[in-house]
Amino acid sequence: MNHILPSDYLINDPCSIVAVAIANGGVKIPVQVSKADGYMTLSDMNRYVRDNLSVAKRTDYKRGQRPKLKDLKVNGRAIVCVLGHYLYVDGEDYYSFFDNHDDEVVAMWLLK
Fold first, then answer.
1. Do the beta carbons of residue 14 and residue 110 sit within 8 Å?
2. 22-80 pLDDT, tens digit each
3. Greater confidence, 104 or 35?
């Protein structure tokens, strides 16, 4: 999996907005969140992704069965949650301001 840094105009946004913006062709979509710190729970993110992108399938990974991001196989585009961080994946490339190669995947929304 190749690590690609998102565009600088997204640098001050929460990872959830960054991931969805990249999947949406670079267009930021405002969001309402339930946590005071501005970050999203998995439930909030599920609603945000489904409200703004066309989802083919959601996959949740149980503890002890979670693949590392570097081992994840994605055919197409997806929004991925790795232990509290959201990112965009396009085939063999993932977009994040952080190095997430060794992080475990918690959930994935495969996009249409």
1. no
2. 999 999 998 877 666 667 889 999 999 999 999 999 999 999 999 999 999 999 999 99
3. 104
Dihedral sign (CA 45, 50, 53, 59): positive
Cβ contact 108:79 at 8 Å: yes
**Contact yes or no for 105/89 (Cβ under 8 A):** no
Tokens of 100: 């997430």
Beta strands 55-60 and 105-111, pairing class: antiparallel
Report yes or no: 100 and 87 within 8 Å, Cβ to Cβ. Answer: yes
- Residue 15 burial by Cβ neighbours in a 10 Å radius (0-12, 13-18, 19+): buried
**Nearest CA-CA partner of 58 in 110, 5, 1, 4:** 110
Q: Please give the model's pTM, rounded to 2 decimal places.
A: 0.93
Q: Answer for the pair 61, 67: CB distance below 8 angstroms, yes or no.
A: yes
- Return the pLDDT at 105: 98
